[in-house]
Q: What sequence folds into this?
């Protein structure tokens, strides 16, 4: 039996499989250097949002680093340390800021989102962000007051301003919209209790794998690998003529690239043979060829380098490219109907 397990408020409503896996000691995927850099960047954005709130004339309180807690990566947690204890488990969280209004303090939760997620929050609020809802419910359960919710658009600096669960209408702040959470804290308590029971039995619960949803950034994906591998087969077939044409063009392109690479490789071998045994530079039939002797390529083992230099030096030498659309496209059935 687990000894009164502690759950983080920020993941109180996370996939139950993750919560049980954490309690049973399964290892999460290691965070990469760029994951850690990104998290650091988001925490700096919290300061930006806090300054925006202060610029509206509110007294914003910052707890700084928590003297009690460290992050899983070893860094120190910041925020107001809050805890709730129940017979079977405890919840611990860190509230980003507090504001003091008329002598009373209210919790402030700050989120910084990319423009698409920000728009989604604007349209649906917590309906599309269940983990945020669970976390906010925990904070409000601790404070027993309404909460202030500030959502910063990382790309534009725009912000969404909400007062959450002000059932007694005690907080009226200009420019802030009042919203109410669909879930109750009792539901979270119930959910975590069943996680504790599963963990006590040493069993991972089943959870539906959602490649485009909650599972995308999960650090325990390896526990669901059998579902990941069959994901391509599960992708539904659609029938849209313009898209079929694009898919056909894609297949044609892949075939032409392959043929092109084979032709180029055969031509280069003939041209290089001539250049090496006759003359190193020549032009023929609209092609010029120049042989410059043998060379070697130098590559760098980035993983090893990271262990040898400090963070400042590493940050100075790396170059982060422009954001790009990441996608996977595979030929799963060729134009003749055969599998690749
Ligand atoms: S991959 Fe998805 S279903 Fe599996 S543990 Fe992670 S969130 Fe849960
Ligand atoms: Zn703490």
A:
């Amino acid at each position: 039996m687990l000894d009164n397990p502690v759950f983080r408020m920020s993941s109180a409503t996370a996939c139950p499989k993750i919560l049980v896996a954490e309690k049973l000691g399964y290892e999460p995927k290691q965070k990469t250097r760029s994951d850690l850099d990104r998290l650091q960047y988001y925490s700096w954005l919290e300061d930006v949002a806090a300054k925006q709130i202060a610029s509206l004339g509110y007294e914003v309180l910052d707890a700084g680093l928590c003297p009690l807690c460290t992050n899983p990566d070893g860094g120190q947690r910041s925020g107001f340390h809050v805890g709730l204890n129940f017979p079977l488990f405890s919840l611990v969280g860190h509230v980003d800021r507090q504001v003091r209004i008329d002598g009373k303090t209210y919790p402030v939760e700050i989120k910084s989102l990319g423009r698409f997620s920000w728009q989604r929050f604007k349209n649906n609020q917590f309906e599309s962000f269940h983990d945020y809802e669970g976390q906010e419910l925990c904070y409000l359960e601790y404070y027993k007051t309404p909460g202030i919710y500030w959502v910063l658009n990382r790309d534009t600096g725009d912000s969404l301003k909400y007062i959450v669960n002000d059932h007694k209408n005690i907080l009226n702040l200009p420019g802030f919209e009042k919203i109410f959470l669909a879930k109750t804290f009792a539901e979270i308590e119930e959910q975590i209790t069943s996680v504790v029971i599963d963990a006590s039995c040493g069993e991972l619960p089943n959870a539906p794998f959602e490649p485009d949803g909650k599972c995308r950034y999960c650090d325990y994906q390896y526990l669901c690998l059998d579902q990941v591998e069959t994901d391509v087969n599960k992708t539904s077939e659609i029938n849209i003529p313009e898209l079929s044409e694009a898919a056909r063009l894609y297949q044609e392109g892949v075939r032409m690239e392959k043929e092109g690479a084979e032709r180029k490789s055969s031509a280069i071998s003939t041209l290089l043979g001539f250049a090496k045994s006759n003359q190193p530079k020549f032009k023929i039939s609209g092609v010029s060829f120049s042989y410059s002797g043998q060379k070697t390529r130098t590559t760098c083992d980035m993983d090893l380098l990271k262990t040898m230099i400090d963070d400042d030096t590493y940050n100075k030498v790396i170059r982060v490219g422009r954001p790009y659309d990441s996608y996977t496209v595979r030929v799963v059935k060729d134009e003749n109907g055969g599998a690749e």
